[in-house]
Amino acid sequence: KTWQGGSGYARKIVFRGIRMSNVSNPIIIDQYYCDSSRQCQNQTSAVKVHQISFIEIKGTSTTKDAIKFSCSDSSPCEKIYLQDINMSLESGGNASAYCWKASGFSSGLVNPPSCLTRAVVGLINQNVGSSKKVEVA
């Protein structure tokens, strides 16, 4: 969770091998966090969130959205990675995933199915100036 109007970054974080039982919001990135008793005013700046991995996470959720990525319009979450996720509802049935301005990849079994926007895969060649060539992943 990050505060609206924040700055800086959260990157290169891995959550791996976690078992959960009867948990609210088990897999979450929330860039609109507000713990005030009054509604927080929307702000355009946000902490940059990228290269976050969730690997081998299993269990039950008390909330319908077992995966929830609520990211900023001005600073979307990028390079989110889901691998071998299996979350169901504690009450029985299928959990769901919610994504807003979140992109990345998934592999293996991901349940509920990933809602991440797929990022462009591969290298992009860019010419910088007249003599330099830069490859960006």
Q: How is the main sheet built? A: 5 strands, parallel
Radius of gyration: 17 Å
Low-confidence stretches: 121-137
Q: What is the count of DSSP helices, taking H or I runs of 4+ residues?
A: 0
What's the number of extended β-strand segments? Answer: 10
In percent, how much strand structure appears in the residues?
over 45%
When the domains are counted, the total is: 1
Structure in words:
The protein has one domain. The chain has strands spanning 9-23, 27-30, 48-61, 65-70, 77-89, 96-100, 102-111, 117-118, 124-128, 132-136. The strands form three sheets. Strands 1-3-5-7-8 form a five-stranded parallel β-sheet, with no helix packed on it. The radius of gyration is 17 Å and the shape is globular. The protein has 137 residues and is mainly β. InterPro entries: Glyco_hydro_28 (IPR000743), Pectin_lyas_fold (IPR012334), Pectin_lyase_fold/virulence (IPR011050). This is Polygalacturonase.
Keywords:
five-stranded parallel sheet; 137 residues; three-stranded parallel sheet; mainly beta; disordered C terminus
Summarize the entry for a quick read.
Its main location: secreted. By secondary structure, the chain is mostly beta strands.
Give the topology.
Layout: E1 9-23, E2 27-30, E3 48-61, E4 65-70, E5 77-89, E6 96-100, E7 102-111, E8 117-118, E9 124-128, E10 132-136
Parallel strand pairs: 1-3, 2-4, 3-5, 4-6, 5-7, 7-8
Antiparallel strand pairs: 9-10
